[in-house]
Automatic annotation (TrEMBL):
Domain Aconitase/3-isopropylmalate dehydratase large subunit alpha/beta/alpha: 67-534
Similarity comment text for this entry: Belongs to the aconitase/IPM isomerase family.
Keyword terms of this UniProt record: Iron, Iron-sulfur, Metal-binding
One annotated GO biological process: propionate metabolic process, methylcitrate cycle
Name listed for the protein in its UniProt record: aconitate hydratase
Keyword Iron attached: yes
Species per Swiss-Prot/TrEMBL record: Pandoraea horticolens
Known EC number: 4.2.1.3
C-alpha cells in the first residue's frame, strides 16, 4: 500500500512521484541536499510506504544520522538464482503443507512482491571450450541431472503468483538484471519510484552500478520480503569513495576492482554502503562500474553505489532499453535529486580517496580476492619461478582450469573484447593452449556472443579452446566439472600443486575445483595468457609465451591490445539490437506460465533434490535450552560459507556421496552440493564438509588436521564430521560452535545456517560475523553471540572438551553471559563466566529468534490471519 501525503505530479510526465525532499525539509530545512544518495532512496521508500505515524521518527534517523530506531524498507522486487531461489520456494511449498496440516488455506502462502528466478547455478562444465559441441552437451547433462529440480521450478511458476522464471541456458542472474531486468525507475499504479531489490546471492549489488539499491540477503530473508514483509534496518555507515585520476593504458576493470578490494578491506568498510563519485567515477563506463559494484561483498560492504548520470543513460540506450524508460530515468533522477550533479553537498560518515592512475596489472590469490599480487611482482612474491618441464608431464603449478567466467567480468564489453583481441594476436603468433588446461568461456549473457561474433573475435577465442560452454555461473560457482581422468590421475600420483585461473570474484580454498589447490582471479585476457603459459609458476609479464613464425620470442606485451583498438571495436560491434534480440523473446517466454498448478506440491519420495522440509516438525519445532551445549567445532578466523556448506562437486567418499550412492545415483550424476539443497537429507551432509576445514578440536601429532572432521565428546573420539553429527542427533545433544573473526563470509548461503541448525546447534560464538550469514542464523533460530574485544577462544583456552550455557535476557545487542564448564585433570570442575554480546540486532530479529526462526514465524502468522478471517 502507498501513502498519499507528498504524492505529486512528476513534471513533464503523466505520472506521480513521492517528494522525499519536501518530507525531509519539513523536518529539517536544507537537510536533503546533505543526504547521501542511499539516504535519499531510503527516504523516498519511507515516504511512500512507511506507516505515517512512524514516518517522522524514521526520517530523523536519516537526517540526524541516528541508529537508535529500526525503520522499514520495502524492496520493489526479489531476484533469485536457482539454488537459493529454489530452496526458498521449497520452504514456501513446505510452509503450504504445514498450513494445510493445521487446517489453514495453503494458497495464502504466496509471494506478493514480484520475484524473478534465473536458473544459472546448476550447469557443470563437463565439456571444455575446446569441444565445438560443449554448450549442447553441457546443457543436456544439466537437464538430465536436474530433472527433479526443474520439475519443481516449473511447478512454482504455475502454483505461485508473482514468480517469473528464466530457464537454464540463458545467462547469469546479475548480468541479466543489469542488462534488462532493472528499469532503474519503477512504475506502479501511475507512480514512479526508484527500483530497489534484494537477491539471494551476495553479488546482487552488481546493479548498484545503475544507481539501484540492491543487496544480497539469505534465502530466509528473501522469503520474508517475497511475502510482503518489510526488511527492517538501522541506518548503516554510508562511506564516500572519491575516485580520482584515470587508469593507465592497458589496465582493465578487473585490475581496478582487485586493487579496490585490497584497499577497501584494509579500510574496514564491513557492512557499509559505499558511494563512488568524483572525476574518476564519472569517466568509468557502466560496465567498469558494474565490475566494481559486483564485488561489494569482497570489499566487506553491503552495497557499492554509483550515482545516476550520463554514463547510466548511455548504458540504458546501449542495452536496448525502451526510449520512454530512458527518458523517465533521467527526468525522475533530476527531479528527485538522484542525478550526480545534485549530490555535490552530500555528507558521509567518512570519505576515502582512491587514485585510479595508481592501479597496475594484478591477479589475486591464491585463496582470497583481497590478496592482490601485481603481475610485475610474481617472482618477488614467490608465485612465479623456474619451471621444470619434463616432456610428457605437467609442470608443478600447472593451470588445470582457465575460465573466462562470471558476471563480474563478462558483463563488461571492454574486458570481453580485450580477451578476444588478445586471442586473435596469440593465434597470429602461432601460440596454443597447453593440453592439460581445461579452458572455457561462459558469458553471463547471450548478447556477449553476438557482439564477439560481430567483431569476428569468437572464432579467435574458440581456436585457443575458449568456446562457449554455457551461459551460466560455471567455474565461478565451483561448477568446473570433471577433469580428464588421465590429468586427474597425474595430479594425484605426482601430488602436483595444480592451479585454477578464472575471471571470477571468489577463490576460496577448495571452491573452484577439488584438485585445484590454489586459484587466482584475473582479467579475461590474462586468463587466455595463462592458458597458453600452462603454469602459475610462469612470470606472465617477462617470460616468453612462445615464438612466432619468424622465430621471435612472444611476450605478454606483444599480444596485449591497445585501449584505442578495444574502444573502436566496441563502437563498431556492440549494438542495442543485440540486447533486444536476446531479451525480448526471453522475457516474453518467462511470463507464460500455462495452466495453474495444484497448491500443494506432489513430493517425490525418492528424490535427492527436492524434499518436503522438516522445519515445523520434531526437534526443530521444540524449545532451545541453551544449556549443556557441547562444541561441534572450534574454528579460526575467516571461516567462509564454503567451509560451512560447500557448493562444489560431491565426491564419492564424502558423506553426501555415500548417501547418494545408497539412493541409487551413479557417481557421474552426483552433481554438486548446491544442486541438492532442496533435499535436506543430502544437504545436511554437506555441513562442514569442506576438506580444507581446520577444526581445532581435531589434533593429531600436535597439529590441527585439515578435513571434514570432528571430535565426539566426552569420549574424545576423532571421526568424520557427519558421523559426529549423527551421534549427537541420536543423543539429542545441544551443540555450539566457537569461532574467530569474520565468521560466515562469502556466499549468501542459507544452508550454512540450516545445516548447523539441523545438526542441533543452538548458538554460535565468534569474534565477528558477516552480515548475511548472521541474519541467516537468526532466521534459523540459531543464536549469534559475539565475544567482547580482547576475548576469544584462545584467551579462554577453549579446546572443545567443555560444556556451555548461555544465560541472560535476549534483547537487541544485550550483554549475555557464556558459562563455560570444565572438568580439570584432578577431577574438580571449573565454571567460567564470559560476557558476550547478543547479536540479535533488532526487535524484529528477537521476535524471529524467539519464534524458533523465520519459517516458524511465518506459519504462526498465516494461521493467525486465517483464524482471524474466519
Amino acid at each position: 500500500m502507498m501513502n498519499t501525503e507528498y504524492r505529486k505530479t512528476l513534471p513533464g510526465t503523466s505520472l506521480d512521484y513521492f517528494d522525499a525532499r519536501a518530507a525531509v525539509e519539513a523536518i529539517a530545512p536544507g537537510a536533503y541536499d546533505m543526504l547521501p544518495y542511499t539516504s535519499r532512496v531510503l527516504a523516498e521508500n519511507l515516504v511512500r510506504r512507511c506507516d505515517p505515524a512512524a514516518l517522522t521518527d524514521s526520517l530523523k534517523q536519516l537526517i540526524e544520522r541516528r541508529r537508535d530506531l529500526d525503520f522499514p524498507w520495502f524492496p520493489a522486487r526479489v531476484v533469485c538464482h536457482d539454488i537459493l531461489g529454489q530452496t526458498a520456494l521449497v520452504d514456501l511449498a513446505g510452509l503450504r503443507d504445514a498450513i494445510a496440516a493445521q487446517g489453514g488455506d495453503p494458497a495464502l502462502v504466496n509471494p506478493v512482491v514480484p520475484t524473478q528466478l534465473v536458473v544459472d547455478h546448476s550447469l557443470a562444465v563437463e565439456c571444455g571450450g575446446f569441444d565445438p559441441d560443449a554448450f549442447a552437451k553441457n546443457r543436456a547433462i544439466e537437464d538430465r541431472r536436474n530433472e527433479d529440480r526443474f520439475d519443481f521450478i516449473n511447478w512454482t511458476k504455475r502454483a505461485f503468483r508473482n514468480v517469473d522464471v528464466i530457464p537454464p541456458g540463458n545467462g547469469i542472474l546479475h548480468q541479466i538484471n543489469l542488462e534488462r531486468m532493472s528499469p532503474v525507475i519503477q512504475v506502479t499504479d501511475g507512480v514512479a519510484y526508484p527500483d530497489t531489490l534484494v537477491g539471494t546471492d551476495s553479488h546482487t549489488p552488481m546493479v548498484d552500478a545503475l544507481g539501484v539499491i540492491a543487496i544480497g540477503v539469505g534465502g530466509l530473508e528473501a522469503e520474508s520480503v517475497m511475502l510482503g514483509r518489510a526488511s527492517w534496518m538501522r541506518l548503516p555507515d554510508i562511506v564516500g569513495v572519491e575516485l580520482t585520476g584515470k587508469p593507465q593504458p592497458g589496465i582493465t576493470a578487473t585490475d581496478i576492482v582487485l586493487a579496490l578490494t585490497e584497499f577497501l578491506r584494509k579500510e574496514k568498510v564491513v557492512s557499509a554502503y559505499l558511494e563512488f563519485y568524483g572525476e574518476g567515477a564519472a569517466n568509468l563506463t557502466l560496465g567498469d562500474r558494474a565490475t566494481i559494484s559486483n564485488m561489494a561483498p569482497e570489499f566487506g560492504a553491503t552495497a557499492a553505489m554509483f550515482y545516476i548520470d550520463a554514463q547510466t543513460i548511455k548504458y540504458l540506450k546501449l542495452t536496448g532499453r525502451d526510449d520512454a524508460l530512458v527518458a523517465l530515468v533521467e527526468t525522475y533522477a533530476k527531479q528527485a535529486g538522484l542525478w550526480a550533479d545534485s549530490l555535490t553537498k552530500a555528507r558521509y560518515e567518512r570519505v576515502l580517496t582512491f587514485d585510479l592512475s595508481s592501479v597496475v596489472r594484478n591477479i589475486a590469490g591464491p585463496s582470497n580476492p583481497h590478496k592482490r599480487v601485481p603481475t610485475s611482482e610474481l617472482a618477488a612474491r614467490g608465485i612465479s619461478g623456474k619451471v621444470e618441464n619434463e616432456p610428457g608431464l605437467m609442470p608443478d603449478g600447472a593451470v588445470i582450469i582457465a575460465a573466462i567466467t562470471s558476471c563480474t567480468n563478462t558483463n563488461n564489453p571492454r574486458n570481453m573484447i580485450a580477451a578476444g583481441l588478445f586471442a586473435r594476436n596469440a593465434n597470429r603468433a602461432g601460440l596454443v593452449r597447453k593440453p592439460w588446461v581445461k579452458s572455457s568461456l561462459a558469458p553471463g549473457s547471450k548478447a556477449v556472443t553476438l557482439y564477439l561474433e560481430a567483431a569476428g573475435l569468437l572464432p579467435e577465442l574458440e581456436s585457443l579452446g575458449f568456446g562457449v560452454v554455457a551461459y551460466a555461473c560455471t567455474s565461478c560457482n565451483g561448477m568446473s566439472g570433471a577433469l580428464d581422468p588421465m590429468i586427474q590421475q597425474e595430479i594425484i600420483e605426482r601430488d602436483l600443486y595444480a592451479t585454477a585461473v578464472l575471471s571470477g570474484n571468489r577463490n576460496f580454498d577448495g571452491r573452484i575445483h577439488p584438485y585445484a589447490k590454489q586459484a587466482f582471479l584475473a582479467s579475461p585476457p590474462l586468463v587466455v595468457a595463462y592458458a597458453i603459459a600452462g603454469t602459475i609458476r610462469f612470470d606472465i609479464e617477462k617470460d616468453v609465451l612462445g615464438v612466432d613464425a619468424d622465430g621471435k620470442p612472444v611476450r605478454l606485451a606483444d599480444l596485449w591490445p591497445s585501449d584505442e583498438e578495444i574502444d573502436a571495436i566496441i563502437a563498431s560491434s556492440v549494438k542495442p539490437e543485440q540486447f533486444r534480440r536476446v531479451y525480448e523473446p526471453m522475457f516474453a517466454a518467462s511470463v507464460e506460465h500455462g495452466e495453474p498448478a495444484e497448491p500443494l506440491y506432489d513430493w517425490r519420495e525418492m528424490s535427492t533434490y527436492i524434499r518436503r522440509p522438516p522445519y515445523w516438525e520434531g526437534a526443530l519445532a521444540g524449545e532451545r535450552t541453551l544449556r549443556g551445549m557441547r562444541a561441534l567445532a572450534v574454528l579460526g578466523d575467516n571461516i567462509t560459507t564454503d567451509h560451512l556448506s560447500p557448493s562444489n562437486a560431491i565426491m564419492a567418499d564424502s558423506a553426501a556421496g555415500e548417501y547418494l550412492a545408497k539412493m541409487g545415483l551413479p557417481e557421474e550424476d552426483f552433481n554438486s552440493y548446491a544442486t541438492h539443497r532442496g533435499d535436506h537429507l543430502t544437504a545436511q551432509r554437506a555441513t562442514f564438509a569442506n576438506p580444507t576445514l581446520k577444526n581445532e578440536m581435531v589434533v593429531v601429532d600436535g597439529q590441527v588436521k585439515a578435513g571434514s572432521l570432528a571430535r565426539i565428546e566426552p569420549e574424545g573420539k576423532i571421526t568424520r564430521m557427519w558421523e559426529a553429527i549423527e551421534t549427537y542427533m541420536t543423543r539429542k545433544q545441544p551443540l555450539i560452535v566457537i569461532a574467530g573473526a569474520d565468521y560466515g563470509q562469502g556466499s549468501s548461503r542459507d544452508w550454512a545456517a540450516k545445516g548447523v541448525r539441523l545438526a542441533g546447534t543452538e548458538a554460535i560464538v565468534a569474534e565477528g560475523f558477516e552480515r548475511i550469514h548472521r541474519t541467516n542464523l537468526v532466521g534459523m533460530g540459531v543464536l549469534p553471540l559475539e565475544f567482547k574485544p580482547g576475548t576469544n577462544r584462545k584467551t579462554l583456552g577453549i579446546d572443545g572438551s567443555e560444556t556451555f550455557d548461555v544465560i541472560g535476557e535476549r534483547t537487541p545487542r544485550a550483554d549475555l553471559t557464556l558459562v563455560i564448564h570444565r572438568q580439570k585433570k584432578d577431577g574438580s570442575s571449573e565454571r567460567v563466566e564470559v560476557p558476550v554480546t547478543c547479536r540479535l540486532d533488532t526487535a524484529e530479529e528477537v521476535s524471529i529468534y524467539e519464534a524458533g526462526g523465520v519459517l516458524q514465524r511465518f506459519a504462526q502468522d498465516f494461521l493467525e490471519s486465517s483464524q482471524a478471517a474466519a
